[in-house]
Amino acid sequence: MAATIKDIARETGLSIATISKYVNGGTLKEKNRIAVERAIKKLDYHVNEYARGLKSNRSRTVGVIIPELSNLFVTQIITAMEDILRQHGYSVIICDCHTDEKLECDAAKFLIGKRVDGIINMPVCRDGRHLRPAKEQKIPVVLIDRSVPELSSYADSVLIDNAAAARSAVEHLLDNGHRRIGIIVGPKDVFTSQQRLAGFVDALKSHSVEYDEQLVINSDYTLHGGYESMRAMLKTHPDLTAIFVTNYEMTLGAVIAANEMGIKIPQELSLIGFDNMDLSRIAHPRLTIVTQPLEEIGSQVARILLDRLENGYTGVPMKITLSTTLQIGASVRQL
User: Within this chain, do residues 152 and 90 fall inside the same structural domain, yes or no?
Assistant: First the structure.
């Protein structure tokens, strides 16, 4: 016969209320926690999630909708937030919508049908219509990376200061004497793309450098997109002295393109990339790169959602904006 909470209480000498608190993600005194975990292991106790869900009207699951699971930025954030959610007794259902708005809408419907307690979303849909049913049913929503104005009065969000991130990168190039600077950004209608381009323009203006829209290429945040954009940029504007690439996958594609074209970095072209320190160490020379606090993004998302699940919605959405860091490598030449 399967062990029960009563068996755990009998084994430890603690009250059923104390055991129940632990099972439901509550915090115990250290000695009590150790005793409970030892008893759970000894008696091979397993939580009946279905029964608990019926009693509490909670499924103890969180839905996550992301545009591309293959994106390293996404997977590292998911890992960080899933660890925290698991520690508090929640499992995670991940839906990859392949950057498709219809699939994103389908994923939201699926998760709501599964009675998830909350939804975490890096939105593809620009107007947030896929999350309106969640709002109507008062399911907590936390957005990652991208803001959706139509959901600003309801959904919490964890973002980075994209404009400042781009500004710091471009100012570094300008401070090293570069004036013909290209930029490879994401799609025109994506929040992060707009903000990073705005930071690029601000940096140029602060150094009295004229903005040339011909030196801007909108790509699709993929390796192939970065590769093709880099080749097009260098063929069209061979007088460029520097390029700023605004996400990890496109940075990787841009480096591959430069290598294939025989462009020496930084002797012939200075380059600043985005997102991933491992890439900066692998590339030769070591890349100067904008790094995002991926683990902190994931932990902040998880903690905001847990607060909503445990304490309810206050009526005022939380918006956390985190800073990036410019890690200096050897891919920028001083002119």
Answer: yes
